[in-house]
Amino acid sequence: MNTLTNEITRELLDAVGNPAGLEAVFQQHSHSKGPFYHALAQATASLTEHFSTLAQKCKEAEKEYQQRQQQAKGTKQELASLEQGRVARPKNSQHLRGR
Q1: CA torsion sign, 69 to 71 to 76 to 77?
Q2: Contact, 14 vs 20, CB < 8 A?
Q3: How many domains does the chain have?
């Protein structure tokens, strides 16, 4: 069912980030105070839910980023240790070959 409130809600959500678009929606529906304010409440609730979801995803991404940084740090340390071992090995291997 496509009510005036649903139509206004959709128009408000479509105009997010476009001040001129929002102003046009306000002007177009200024005579329909009840449906307009109800639509504004619905759009706000929808955006709040959307931003909450985005905030949660951002927290999860930050946590994953921190984990990957720790993994990278461990990998760098392991690589440095292996490189040090490789530099030391030729001397040791020549010494062992001479036996």
Answers
A1: positive
A2: no
A3: 1
pLDDT digits 0-9 by tens, 72-82: 999 998 888 88
Contact residues for 16 (Cβ-Cβ < 8 A; gap 6+): 22, 47
Contact 5, 39 (CB under 8 A): yes
Rounded Cα distance between 62 and 69, Å, is 10
Domain coverage including residue 63: 4-97
Rounded to 5°, angle at Cα 14 from 9 and 26: 60
Tally the residues of the chain: 99
CA torsion sign, 23 to 25 to 26 to 28?
Answer: positive
* Encoded tokens for 98: 């001479």
Q: Is pTM, for the whole model, over 0.90?
A: no
> Can you list the alpha helix ranges (DSSP code H) found in 15-99?
19-28, 33-97
